Amino acid sequence: MASPSAQRRWQSTDATASTDSSKITGIVDQISQLTLLETADLVSALKSRLNIPDMPTFAAPAAAPGAGPAAAAEEEDLAPATQEKTLFNLKLQSFDAGAKPKVIKEIKSMLGLSLVDSKKFVESAPKLMKEGVPKEEGEKIVETLKGLGAVVVME
After folding, report:
1. pLDDT for the residue 19
2. Under a CB-based contact definition with an 8 Å cutoff, are residues 114 and 108 in contact?
């Protein structure tokens, strides 16, 4: 059952829409004046207040529609015949001291971390970077970081 505030939202009229839009405009103006850190705190507070879960970093592929137990049994029969690994974990083993700034920047963009977190991540090598990465994407990442002076292994 929808809450009264949700019902009001869905049953609003043009008269209430204009007051809501001015209210929203005021909120947007206030938010636009926040610093980046204040905005991050606001996002965290809203997530906790509204019970919004964090988004996963990668989504697992969904089963094909209509694939029932028979399809699952067929996949199990094929699994022993083809043992080729398709998903890999990428681990940052080490890096050249001179290449550290470049590696930190690449890790920052690749993993979506802050600069400080990226620096800590690189300095704590060997460390697992990504899990469940397809082979082609993993090879590209390994080559990119290898070109910058880092040693990354696919496990």
Report:
1. 57
2. yes
Per-10-residue mean pLDDT of the chain, 155 residues long, equals 55 54 89 86 86 64 50 49 74 88 89 89 87 88 90 87
CB atoms within 10 A of CB 20: 13
- Residue 152 neighbours by CB under 8 Å, 6+ apart: 90, 91, 92, 93, 129, 141, 142, 145, 146
Taking the whole predicted model, whether its pTM rises above 0.85 is answered as no
Would you give the end-to-end CA distance of the chain in angstroms? 48
The residue ranges of DSSP E strands in 42-147, in sequence order, are 87-95, 127-134
Cα–Cα distances (Å) from 129 to 13, 92, 126, in that order, read 50, 6, 9
SS3 content of the chain, % helix, strand, coil (to 5): 55, 15, 30
Q: In Å, how far from its chain's centre is CA 22?
A: 34
Number of H helices, E strands in the chain: 7, 3
